[in-house]
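Q: Please design a sequence for this.
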């Protein structure tokens, strides 16, 4: 009951999700028109009172049903987590699913996409921006975050400022300033990767290229980088965002991840779906996620394992992750981990295991502890 009341209160605020904000504004606009009517028709006290009571009842009912307070809205990651150079702002694309009913035993979902930026120093929302399924975040590039847009059989690019959410370069700017890049750009975002402030990609002509923000040139290494990212991120999604160095020998990373899962301390969780979600080859540590029980609704645990000491350094409950996502998304920073787990975004100190940020992606506000 307490959680429902909290969701109900939060639903009466703009939260960045377009479908909610439009509906919320319609309800508020209707209420304003009714208020003006009551002011103009002050002599018709009975009618005004009936209309006011009816509005309060209907509007509250509608906000419960359609305002995300009384229904499920599972959220999952649609991209890795990216941060600015100072590691003070985290940007991610997330997807919320709205149940649109069931027919013939099949549940139909409507997906809503949102770019979210969170200030990691204050835990507050930095900005939000509505997105679509045709957009993909590629990574930190040219002082912002690079966005790929699928335009039928063509690809387009834009650059978004991490601090403000405003476009540094629009799709039109890229077409005008970098026509040779756009001419060979695929509509498949999986054929490109951002590493060390360079964009590596496979062009529609079958050749491999490197773009440094100014010059486009052929680069045979681009094929190795794209292959390495594919094989690594099959098991470790978002690894290149956390470790943005060129990687050609991906087998070492895969072998290390497999070795972690064979450790006796990790084998103890074998029946609870343990999964390595991030590794540090230099420090010989790994983040492992597992469920507390075998139920889908069980809360997830996250532990840091040291392969040198062969022991668990710390363990933390990160809450429930819905079936849409299943595993947390992790971004490793210099002194902390940024973790997106369903509708929550957390920041944990690496050594102290202390939570400094707890942010709700459904309402786009810090969670009151």
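A: Design:
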């Amino acid at each position: 009951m307490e959680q429902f009341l909290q969701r109900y209160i939060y639903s009466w605020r703009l939260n960045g999700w377009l479908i909610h904000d439009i509906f919320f504004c319609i309800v508020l606009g209707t209420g304003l028109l009714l208020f003006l009517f009551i002011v103009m028709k002050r002599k018709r006290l009975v009618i005004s009172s009936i209309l006011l009571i009816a509005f309060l009842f209907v509007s509250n009912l509608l906000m419960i049903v359609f305002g995300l307070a009384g229904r499920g809205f599972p959220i999952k990651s649609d991209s890795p987590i990216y941060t600015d150079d100072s590691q003070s702002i985290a940007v991610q694309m997330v997807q919320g699913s709205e149940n649109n009913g069931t027919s013939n035993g099949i549940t139909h979902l409507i997906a809503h996409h949102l770019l979210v930026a969170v200030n990691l120093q204050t835990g507050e929302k930095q900005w939000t921006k509505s997105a679509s399924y045709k957009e993909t975040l590629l990574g930190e590039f040219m002082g912002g975050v690079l966005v790929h847009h699928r335009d039928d059989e063509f690809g387009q690019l834009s650059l978004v400022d991490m601090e403000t959410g405003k476009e540094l370069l629009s799709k039109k700017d890229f077409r005008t300033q970098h026509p040779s890049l756009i001419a060979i750009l695929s509509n498949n975002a999986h054929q490109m990767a951002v590493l060390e402030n360079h964009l590596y990609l496979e062009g529609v002509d079958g050749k491999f290229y490197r773009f440094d923000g100014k010059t486009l040139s052929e680069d045979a290494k681009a094929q190795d980088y794209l292959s390495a990212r594919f094989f690594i991120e099959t098991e470790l999604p978002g690894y290149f965002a956390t470790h943005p160095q060129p990687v050609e020998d991906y087998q070492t990373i895969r072998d290390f991840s497999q070795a972690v899962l064979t450790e006796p301390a990790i084998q103890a969780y074998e029946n609870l779906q343990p999964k390595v979600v991030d590794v540090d080859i230099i420090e010989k540590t790994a983040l492992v996620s597992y469920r507390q029980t075998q139920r889908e609704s069980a809360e997830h645990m996250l532990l840091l394992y040291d392969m040198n000491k062969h022991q668990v350094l710390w363990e933390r409950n990160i809450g429930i992750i819905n079936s849409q996502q299943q595993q947390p998304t992790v971004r490793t920073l210099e002194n902390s981990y940024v973790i997106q787990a369903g509708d929550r975004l957390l920041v944990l100190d690496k050594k102290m295991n202390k939570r400094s940020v707890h942010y709700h992606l459904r309402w786009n506000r810090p969670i009151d502890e």
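Q: Thanks. Anything notable?
A: DSSP finds nine helices and 22 strands in the chain. The chain has a mean pLDDT of 87.
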